[in-house]
Design a protein that fits this description.
Structural class: alpha/beta
Bound molecules: NADP nicotinamide-adenine-dinucleotide phosphate
Helix content: 40-55%
GO cellular component, one term: cytosol
InterPro entries: dTDP_dehydrorham_reduct, NAD(P)-bd_dom_sf, RmlD-like-bd
CATH architecture of the domain at 5-154 and 181-207 and 247-263: 3-Layer(aba) Sandwich
Order of helices and strands: EHEHEHHEHEEHEEEHEEHEHH
CATH superfamily of the domain at 5-154 and 181-207 and 247-263: NAD(P)-binding Rossmann-like Domain
Organism: Acididesulfobacillus acetoxydans
Shape: globular
GO molecular function: dTDP-4-dehydrorhamnose reductase activity
EC number: 1.1.1.133
Number of helices: 10
Strand content: 15-25%
Oligomer: single chain
Length: 278
Protein backbone atom coordinates (compact mmCIF):
# COMPACT_ATOMS: atom_id res chain seq x y z
CA UNK A 1 0.00 0.00 0.00
CA UNK A 2 1.45 3.31 -1.02
CA UNK A 3 -0.47 6.00 0.80
CA UNK A 4 0.64 8.73 3.13
CA UNK A 5 -0.92 7.82 6.47
CA UNK A 6 -0.79 10.02 9.54
CA UNK A 7 -1.68 8.63 12.97
CA UNK A 8 -2.94 10.60 15.97
CA UNK A 9 -2.27 8.88 19.31
CA UNK A 10 0.51 6.76 17.80
CA UNK A 11 1.89 5.69 21.18
CA UNK A 12 -1.41 4.21 22.40
CA UNK A 13 -2.46 0.58 22.02
CA UNK A 14 -4.09 0.89 18.61
CA UNK A 15 -1.62 3.52 17.42
CA UNK A 16 1.30 1.16 18.03
CA UNK A 17 -0.43 -1.63 16.10
CA UNK A 18 -0.99 0.70 13.15
CA UNK A 19 2.67 1.73 13.19
CA UNK A 20 3.70 -1.90 13.19
CA UNK A 21 1.40 -3.02 10.39
CA UNK A 22 1.91 0.04 8.19
CA UNK A 23 5.69 -0.07 8.33
CA UNK A 24 7.12 1.23 5.09
CA UNK A 25 4.33 3.59 4.20
CA UNK A 26 4.00 4.86 7.73
CA UNK A 27 6.39 7.50 8.93
CA UNK A 28 3.88 10.10 9.78
CA UNK A 29 3.47 9.94 13.51
CA UNK A 30 2.57 13.28 15.07
CA UNK A 31 4.63 13.22 18.29
CA UNK A 32 3.68 15.80 20.84
CA UNK A 33 0.65 16.96 18.87
CA UNK A 34 -2.32 17.73 21.12
CA UNK A 35 -5.54 17.17 19.17
CA UNK A 36 -7.36 19.69 21.34
CA UNK A 37 -5.11 22.44 19.95
CA UNK A 38 -6.81 23.27 16.64
CA UNK A 39 -4.18 25.67 15.18
CA UNK A 40 -1.43 23.07 15.71
CA UNK A 41 -3.56 20.24 14.30
CA UNK A 42 -4.43 22.33 11.23
CA UNK A 43 -0.82 23.40 10.65
CA UNK A 44 0.67 19.91 11.08
CA UNK A 45 -1.88 18.28 8.78
CA UNK A 46 -1.43 21.01 6.14
CA UNK A 47 2.35 20.65 6.34
CA UNK A 48 2.33 16.84 5.99
CA UNK A 49 -0.59 16.75 3.55
CA UNK A 50 -1.48 13.08 4.20
CA UNK A 51 -3.92 11.00 2.14
CA UNK A 52 -5.40 9.41 5.27
CA UNK A 53 -5.43 10.45 8.93
CA UNK A 54 -6.30 7.84 11.56
CA UNK A 55 -7.35 9.23 14.94
CA UNK A 56 -6.70 6.75 17.74
CA UNK A 57 -6.03 9.55 20.26
CA UNK A 58 -8.61 9.59 22.99
CA UNK A 59 -9.28 10.11 26.67
CA UNK A 60 -9.82 6.41 27.48
CA UNK A 61 -9.95 6.27 31.29
CA UNK A 62 -13.64 5.42 31.73
CA UNK A 63 -13.57 5.79 35.54
CA UNK A 64 -11.61 9.06 35.66
CA UNK A 65 -13.81 10.59 32.96
CA UNK A 66 -16.66 10.72 35.49
CA UNK A 67 -14.64 13.34 37.40
CA UNK A 68 -12.94 14.97 34.42
CA UNK A 69 -15.89 15.53 32.13
CA UNK A 70 -14.55 18.68 30.49
CA UNK A 71 -11.23 17.06 29.62
CA UNK A 72 -12.97 13.94 28.27
CA UNK A 73 -15.19 16.06 26.00
CA UNK A 74 -12.26 18.28 25.03
CA UNK A 75 -10.28 15.30 23.73
CA UNK A 76 -12.99 12.87 22.58
CA UNK A 77 -15.41 15.36 21.03
CA UNK A 78 -13.62 18.66 20.25
CA UNK A 79 -10.27 16.96 19.50
CA UNK A 80 -11.93 14.53 17.08
CA UNK A 81 -13.69 17.38 15.31
CA UNK A 82 -10.45 19.39 15.08
CA UNK A 83 -8.81 16.53 13.20
CA UNK A 84 -11.88 16.09 10.97
CA UNK A 85 -11.88 19.78 9.99
CA UNK A 86 -8.14 19.78 9.27
CA UNK A 87 -8.57 16.65 7.11
CA UNK A 88 -11.38 18.23 5.13
CA UNK A 89 -9.23 21.30 4.42
CA UNK A 90 -6.51 19.21 2.75
CA UNK A 91 -8.84 16.58 1.22
CA UNK A 92 -7.57 13.73 3.40
CA UNK A 93 -9.73 10.77 4.32
CA UNK A 94 -10.38 10.55 8.05
CA UNK A 95 -10.64 7.33 10.08
CA UNK A 96 -11.97 7.93 13.59
CA UNK A 97 -12.31 5.31 16.32
CA UNK A 98 -15.36 5.16 18.57
CA UNK A 99 -16.76 2.68 21.08
CA UNK A 100 -19.52 0.22 22.06
CA UNK A 101 -19.98 2.35 25.21
CA UNK A 102 -22.19 4.73 23.19
CA UNK A 103 -24.92 2.10 23.75
CA UNK A 104 -26.74 1.46 27.04
CA UNK A 105 -26.58 -2.32 26.77
CA UNK A 106 -30.29 -3.00 27.26
CA UNK A 107 -30.93 -4.50 23.81
CA UNK A 108 -31.39 -8.27 23.87
CA UNK A 109 -29.67 -8.77 20.49
CA UNK A 110 -26.37 -7.43 19.09
CA UNK A 111 -26.38 -3.71 18.29
CA UNK A 112 -26.36 -2.76 14.62
CA UNK A 113 -25.28 0.58 13.17
CA UNK A 114 -28.97 1.42 12.70
CA UNK A 115 -29.70 1.26 16.47
CA UNK A 116 -29.95 4.47 18.50
CA UNK A 117 -27.09 5.25 20.85
CA UNK A 118 -27.74 6.00 24.50
CA UNK A 119 -24.49 6.21 26.49
CA UNK A 120 -24.48 5.69 30.26
CA UNK A 121 -21.08 7.16 31.16
CA UNK A 122 -19.26 10.44 30.59
CA UNK A 123 -16.73 8.54 28.44
CA UNK A 124 -19.56 7.10 26.30
CA UNK A 125 -21.22 10.51 25.95
CA UNK A 126 -17.98 12.23 24.99
CA UNK A 127 -17.26 9.56 22.34
CA UNK A 128 -20.80 9.85 20.96
CA UNK A 129 -20.36 13.62 20.64
CA UNK A 130 -17.06 12.95 18.90
CA UNK A 131 -18.99 10.93 16.31
CA UNK A 132 -21.62 13.66 15.91
CA UNK A 133 -19.09 16.47 15.54
CA UNK A 134 -17.02 14.48 13.05
CA UNK A 135 -20.16 13.82 11.01
CA UNK A 136 -21.13 17.51 11.22
CA UNK A 137 -17.88 18.43 9.45
CA UNK A 138 -19.14 16.52 6.42
CA UNK A 139 -15.73 15.31 5.23
CA UNK A 140 -14.67 11.93 3.90
CA UNK A 141 -14.82 10.11 7.23
CA UNK A 142 -15.10 6.56 8.49
CA UNK A 143 -16.19 6.15 12.11
CA UNK A 144 -15.34 2.70 13.47
CA UNK A 145 -16.95 1.61 16.74
CA UNK A 146 -14.93 -1.10 18.42
CA UNK A 147 -14.91 -2.81 21.83
CA UNK A 148 -12.77 -4.32 24.60
CA UNK A 149 -9.50 -3.67 22.76
CA UNK A 150 -6.25 -5.44 23.54
CA UNK A 151 -2.89 -5.25 21.83
CA UNK A 152 0.40 -3.59 22.75
CA UNK A 153 -0.11 -1.69 25.98
CA UNK A 154 -2.19 -1.95 29.14
CA UNK A 155 -5.24 -4.12 28.67
CA UNK A 156 -7.47 -6.73 30.35
CA UNK A 157 -5.50 -9.71 29.00
CA UNK A 158 -2.22 -8.49 30.44
CA UNK A 159 -3.86 -7.55 33.74
CA UNK A 160 -5.37 -11.03 34.08
CA UNK A 161 -2.05 -12.75 33.29
CA UNK A 162 -0.25 -10.59 35.84
CA UNK A 163 -2.87 -11.23 38.53
CA UNK A 164 -2.79 -14.98 37.82
CA UNK A 165 0.91 -14.97 38.68
CA UNK A 166 0.31 -13.09 41.92
CA UNK A 167 -2.87 -14.73 43.30
CA UNK A 168 -4.57 -18.13 43.63
CA UNK A 169 -8.06 -16.82 43.13
CA UNK A 170 -9.61 -13.96 41.11
CA UNK A 171 -13.10 -12.45 40.99
CA UNK A 172 -14.28 -11.27 37.59
CA UNK A 173 -17.55 -9.58 36.56
CA UNK A 174 -19.86 -12.10 34.91
CA UNK A 175 -22.91 -10.00 34.03
CA UNK A 176 -21.39 -7.58 31.48
CA UNK A 177 -21.19 -8.88 27.93
CA UNK A 178 -19.25 -7.57 24.96
CA UNK A 179 -16.67 -8.60 22.40
CA UNK A 180 -12.91 -8.63 22.98
CA UNK A 181 -11.16 -7.21 19.92
CA UNK A 182 -7.52 -7.64 18.93
CA UNK A 183 -5.98 -4.41 17.61
CA UNK A 184 -4.34 -6.44 14.82
CA UNK A 185 -7.76 -7.39 13.41
CA UNK A 186 -9.08 -3.86 13.75
CA UNK A 187 -6.15 -2.56 11.70
CA UNK A 188 -6.99 -5.08 8.94
CA UNK A 189 -10.46 -3.50 8.74
CA UNK A 190 -9.07 0.05 8.82
CA UNK A 191 -6.73 -0.79 5.97
CA UNK A 192 -9.55 -2.26 3.87
CA UNK A 193 -11.99 0.57 4.52
CA UNK A 194 -9.59 3.44 3.97
CA UNK A 195 -9.03 2.27 0.41
CA UNK A 196 -12.73 2.75 -0.35
CA UNK A 197 -15.10 5.70 -0.58
CA UNK A 198 -17.71 4.01 1.60
CA UNK A 199 -17.81 6.71 4.27
CA UNK A 200 -19.97 6.30 7.35
CA UNK A 201 -20.33 4.63 10.75
CA UNK A 202 -19.23 0.99 11.11
CA UNK A 203 -19.20 -1.56 13.90
CA UNK A 204 -15.79 -3.23 13.95
CA UNK A 205 -15.29 -5.85 16.67
CA UNK A 206 -14.12 -9.42 16.53
CA UNK A 207 -16.99 -11.87 16.04
CA UNK A 208 -18.90 -13.53 18.89
CA UNK A 209 -19.35 -12.39 22.48
CA UNK A 210 -18.58 -13.22 26.12
CA UNK A 211 -18.67 -11.81 29.62
CA UNK A 212 -15.51 -10.48 31.30
CA UNK A 213 -15.58 -13.68 33.38
CA UNK A 214 -15.69 -15.89 30.26
CA UNK A 215 -12.96 -13.76 28.68
CA UNK A 216 -10.74 -14.32 31.73
CA UNK A 217 -11.49 -18.08 31.72
CA UNK A 218 -10.50 -18.30 28.05
CA UNK A 219 -7.23 -16.42 28.69
CA UNK A 220 -6.29 -18.89 31.44
CA UNK A 221 -7.41 -21.92 29.42
CA UNK A 222 -5.25 -20.87 26.45
CA UNK A 223 -2.22 -20.13 28.62
CA UNK A 224 -2.60 -23.14 30.92
CA UNK A 225 -2.89 -21.00 34.07
CA UNK A 226 -4.51 -22.79 36.98
CA UNK A 227 -5.78 -19.76 38.90
CA UNK A 228 -9.34 -20.11 40.23
CA UNK A 229 -11.80 -17.62 38.72
CA UNK A 230 -14.92 -16.67 40.60
CA UNK A 231 -17.87 -14.97 38.82
CA UNK A 232 -19.16 -11.80 40.50
CA UNK A 233 -21.98 -9.41 39.63
CA UNK A 234 -21.49 -5.75 38.70
CA UNK A 235 -23.29 -4.90 41.96
CA UNK A 236 -20.53 -6.64 43.90
CA UNK A 237 -17.89 -4.64 42.02
CA UNK A 238 -19.13 -1.02 42.18
CA UNK A 239 -17.56 1.52 39.84
CA UNK A 240 -18.05 5.26 39.32
CA UNK A 241 -18.92 4.87 35.66
CA UNK A 242 -21.96 2.84 34.70
CA UNK A 243 -21.17 0.33 31.97
CA UNK A 244 -23.53 -1.28 29.47
CA UNK A 245 -24.71 -4.77 30.49
CA UNK A 246 -24.56 -6.09 26.95
CA UNK A 247 -22.83 -3.97 24.31
CA UNK A 248 -22.23 -6.74 21.78
CA UNK A 249 -22.21 -5.25 18.28
CA UNK A 250 -22.77 -6.83 14.92
CA UNK A 251 -20.49 -5.69 12.08
CA UNK A 252 -23.53 -5.35 9.90
CA UNK A 253 -22.30 -2.67 7.48
CA UNK A 254 -18.90 -4.30 7.05
CA UNK A 255 -20.74 -7.52 6.19
CA UNK A 256 -23.07 -5.76 3.76
CA UNK A 257 -20.01 -4.25 2.03
CA UNK A 258 -18.17 -7.60 2.00
CA UNK A 259 -15.42 -6.09 4.18
CA UNK A 260 -15.80 -8.00 7.45
CA UNK A 261 -12.38 -9.60 7.87
CA UNK A 262 -12.80 -10.02 11.64
CA UNK A 263 -12.07 -13.41 13.20
CA UNK A 264 -14.01 -15.02 16.07
CA UNK A 265 -12.70 -13.43 19.29
CA UNK A 266 -11.35 -16.76 20.62
CA UNK A 267 -9.20 -17.24 17.49
CA UNK A 268 -7.83 -13.69 17.64
CA UNK A 269 -7.06 -14.11 21.35
CA UNK A 270 -5.15 -17.33 20.68
CA UNK A 271 -3.08 -15.57 18.01
CA UNK A 272 -2.34 -12.72 20.44
CA UNK A 273 -1.35 -15.03 23.30
CA UNK A 274 0.85 -17.20 21.08
CA UNK A 275 2.54 -14.46 19.10
CA UNK A 276 2.32 -11.09 20.80
CA UNK A 277 2.44 -11.51 24.58
CA UNK A 278 5.95 -11.86 25.97
N1 LIG B 1 -9.26 0.31 24.91
C1 LIG B 1 -10.49 -0.16 24.69
O1 LIG B 1 -10.93 -1.15 25.28
C2 LIG B 1 -11.38 0.54 23.69
C3 LIG B 1 -12.67 0.04 23.46
C4 LIG B 1 -13.48 0.68 22.52
C5 LIG B 1 -13.00 1.78 21.82
N2 LIG B 1 -11.76 2.26 22.09
C6 LIG B 1 -11.29 3.43 21.34
O2 LIG B 1 -10.20 3.01 20.54
C7 LIG B 1 -9.27 4.08 20.38
C8 LIG B 1 -7.88 3.61 20.74
O3 LIG B 1 -7.87 3.14 22.08
P1 LIG B 1 -6.53 2.64 22.78
O4 LIG B 1 -6.88 1.49 23.64
O5 LIG B 1 -5.44 2.53 21.76
O6 LIG B 1 -6.25 3.90 23.74
P2 LIG B 1 -4.92 4.26 24.53
O7 LIG B 1 -3.98 3.11 24.58
O8 LIG B 1 -5.39 4.88 25.81
O9 LIG B 1 -4.25 5.37 23.60
C9 LIG B 1 -4.82 6.65 23.46
C10 LIG B 1 -3.71 7.57 23.04
O10 LIG B 1 -4.25 8.89 22.89
C11 LIG B 1 -3.29 9.81 23.38
N3 LIG B 1 -3.95 11.08 23.74
C12 LIG B 1 -4.74 11.35 24.79
N4 LIG B 1 -5.12 12.64 24.76
C13 LIG B 1 -4.54 13.18 23.66
C14 LIG B 1 -4.54 14.50 23.08
N5 LIG B 1 -5.21 15.51 23.63
N6 LIG B 1 -3.84 14.69 21.94
C15 LIG B 1 -3.13 13.68 21.36
N7 LIG B 1 -3.08 12.43 21.86
C16 LIG B 1 -3.78 12.20 23.00
C17 LIG B 1 -2.72 9.10 24.59
O11 LIG B 1 -1.49 9.67 24.92
P3 LIG B 1 -1.05 9.71 26.48
O12 LIG B 1 -0.94 8.26 26.90
O13 LIG B 1 0.24 10.43 26.43
O14 LIG B 1 -2.16 10.41 27.20
C18 LIG B 1 -2.56 7.68 24.05
O15 LIG B 1 -1.33 7.53 23.39
C19 LIG B 1 -9.82 5.23 21.23
O16 LIG B 1 -10.57 6.08 20.41
C20 LIG B 1 -10.76 4.55 22.20
O17 LIG B 1 -11.79 5.41 22.65
C21 LIG B 1 -10.93 1.65 23.00
Amino acid sequence: MNVKVMVMGASGQLGREIRQQFQGCYDLDAPGLDITDYPSVKDRISEINPSVVINTAAYTNVEKAEEEELTAFQVNAIGAQNVAIACKRVGAKFVHISTDYIFDGTKSAPYEEFDSPHPLSVYGKSKLWGEKLVEAVGGESFILRTSWLYGEGHNFVKTMLKLADERDKLSVVADQYGTPTYTKDLVWVIEKLMQTDFYGVYHASNNGSCSWYEFARKIFELTGKTVKVEPVSSAEYPTKAERPRCSVMENKLLKLRGLDVMRPWEEALQDYLENAVH
